Amino acid sequence: MAKLYAYWITVNYREAYGLYASNGILFNHEGPTRGETFITRKVTRAVAAIVAGKQDCFYLGNLEAKRDWGSARDYVEGMWRILQHHEPDDFVLATRETHTFRSFCRGCLQASRKEIVWEGKGVDEVGRERMSNQALNRIDKRYFRPTEVDLLMGDASKAATKLGWKPKTSFDELVSEMVEADCRAYGIMLA
After folding, report:
1. Closest CA to 65 of 150, 139, 169
2. Is 114 inside a domain boundary?
3. DSSP state for residue 151 in the 8-state scheme
């Protein structure tokens, strides 16, 4: 509700007072400096801790929820382009590409040179490392959100057309960058 109100205020002031005021609606923008309370950083930090031998396993809820994840670096460029546009307007910045939490976890583990396979169903599902059979990921029903949104995806076609903006960082590059940064915090170099 607060986001909708902020959007309305921007449009209202832009039209009523002739102000240069634009809205940027940014879908999930991620990177190594993302706050540690966000799920993406919880996963990348857990994977780094597993690689460092400080943790055995991490727990998640719904692995099938889909998100439109992009690089914060790309979105900062998009915000800059919004502010350079000759007239104020409203833009969505997104990749128009979705990935499940399962694929995010798989990508994080692949970036750390581990391959995961899942077995079981529902809350009994376990992600194990293929070579060692070690349980790396388990499901915990406490992490299922009662108001979970199954799919979040944005359409940045207006930003592409009017601003020439499009994301440059692929999902795999973003995931690798985040995992490598968290591993470096443990003194581990993956590349």
Report:
1. 150
2. yes
3. B
159 domain residue, yes or no? yes
Return the CATH number at 123.
3.90.25.10
Q: Classify strands 66-67 and 99-100 as parallel, antiparallel or unpaired.
A: antiparallel
d(C-alpha 45, C-alpha 76), whole Å: 24
Q: Burial, 58: exposed, middle or buried (Cβ in 10 Å; 0-12, 13-18, 19+)?
A: buried
pLDDT of residue 2: 62
Whole-prediction pTM value? 0.90
Q: For residue 66, is it within any domain? A: yes
φ, ψ of residue 40 to 5 degrees: the values are: -65, -45
The count of structural domains within the chain is 1
Yes or no: say if 135 and 56 are a contact pair by the CB < 8 Å rule.
Answer: yes
